[in-house]
Amino acid sequence: MRKLISRLIAEDTALEVIGTARNGLEAVSMVRELKPDVVTLDIEMPEMNGLEALTIIMEHRPTPILMLSSLTQDGALATITALQNGAVDFISKPSGSVSFDLFKVKEELIFKIKQASQIPLRNLIVNNITVSKVDVGPKGNPQTGFSKKFDQILALGTSTGGPKALDTVITALPANFPYPLLVVQHMPPKFTKSLAERLNRLSRVRVVEAEDNQLVLGGTVYIAPGDYHMTVVQTNGEFRIRLHQEPQVQGHRPSVDVLFDSIAKCKSLKRHFILMTGMGSDGAKGMLAAKAAGAHSTIAESKETCIVYGMPRSAVELGCVDYTVPVHLITSKILEVTGVLKR
Questions:
Q1: For a designed S-S bond to 194, which of 30, 46, 77, 253 qualifies (C-beta 3.0 to 4.6 A apart)?
Q2: Is there a shared CATH topology between the 2-118 domain and the 152-342 domain?
Q3: CATH superfamily entry for domain 2-118
Q4: Cβ distance 110 to 8 under 8 Å?
Q5: Catalytic machinery residues
Q6: For the CheB-type methylesterase domain, which residue ranges apply (predicted)?
Q7: CATH of segment(s) 152-342
Q8: Is the pTM of this model over 0.90?
């Protein structure tokens, strides 16, 4: 695997492999010695696994790290943990942990290495400042439970760097947060389910992977499942989620634009739109249209904390952003614009 990955990377003349490690212990030592621009890290390794190595590297010499992930449920959960512990992105190995058809993802591998090399070190360090989290137990407001009556709704879009940013924002929401929040994170199937499950364990609000025809309830975060667009429709005074597999939009399914366009039509509600770290411009046009349709607020993550300042920048350039704030202040801004702080 080390030889194959090295060969694939070396085929691009802009990249050079300066070292290969047999296990996590070696990787930690070589990162200190060689000071690479980017590290690719497998999760399953002898002596010290990838998650342990990631933690030590990010603590002692923060470096953009890409995880190599197997497509199993266990692989997805470990990958989400790695992303929330400081890895910037991941590449799915096509057929499990020992795969010799990695050439199928060669283009993605090279593209993501180059993208990772552009991440400002300061942003990486700021994003790696973590607060230890524990399983918080029962969800929701004991007085009201999860109400289907609410007068505000929030939609959020993110991509590269998103799992870490979502961890920061969603785990800071209070247990009495009374509104639904719908999230598009660009990510394949299985990974979105693991993302939702992990966020649910760490958050005071309930977090679920969305299902088709699901009733939208307050105090709940809905993560769009990988490979499905997520929309909301109002029927008989209720709001329900609709999932569909219509063509990709700007190369994405789920698409932030599709979600934002759908929420913009829920005109009986105060609507709030948030764009966080991610490459490209998905969500910018949707935010612009939502603003024209009477959005109550539009929020973008500021350049100083974005792992990739693409999606928020596109919205800022369209002139449709009300508030630009660093990731650690987005939850405070959400509580302010929804009026929860005044309760």
A1: 77
A2: yes
A3: Response regulator (3.40.50.2300)
A4: yes
A5: 159, 186, 282
A6: 142-341
A7: 3.40.50.180
A8: yes
